[in-house]
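Table S2 (continued). Query chain:
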Amino acid sequence: MTYAGFWPRFAAFLLDFLVMAPIFILVSWGQAHFRLFHVYYFLPGTLFGFWYGVYLVRRFGGTPGKRLMKLRIVKVGGESVAYREALLRYLPEWIIGVGVSLAGVIAVLSLTDDQYFAARTFVERSQVIDKAMPSWNGPVTIALNVWVWGEFLVMLTNKKRRAIHDFIAGTVVIKDAQRIPSYPWTCFVCGNNNAPSDRSSCAVCRFPAAASRAEIEAAKLAGVSASRPYVPSDHAQ
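Corresponding output:
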């Protein structure tokens, strides 16, 4: 497998931001016209987040940004992710996001229309809402910043460019050119020539179909076979 580097993943992040720009514009418009928009949007926003961050990852192997960059999220052994992995990847972000959203809901509920609409600009309105936030919003905001910067830091300090959520879910991001063939394939390690197209690894020696030449040679040298099946390393740095 050819692992996706930092910059392709960062570009995918920016593309996802652009894809969701209409949602951000809608939220900004709603907050400017309705004091309780935070309340109205809480459930739809949560459901949209699960659809975008869990369903699309399970169904297509990544968010629109990653797919546009020809990147795919797979398990560390090369297999396609299931809902378990997709959910585990998204769960920390969702927990922190819910905390931030709930703080906003509590803030607007504590304000009157006169207080809310006295602010004429986006910046002024943000300041009014910020002052009405519950005291625990501070730690939640700190947690959000630590999470975001921690993701980038961890990604930069391991060879597979796995972020924290990748380690939590047991996933890795690879270049899509190295994906599993869509037809019966021959295992380059043990020679099994009847591997079905719906398997992501050889049924005999368990070697992944999505593998680089170096990984194939290393597996041959290690003596991978039916009696000594391939075991992926989750601890490579």
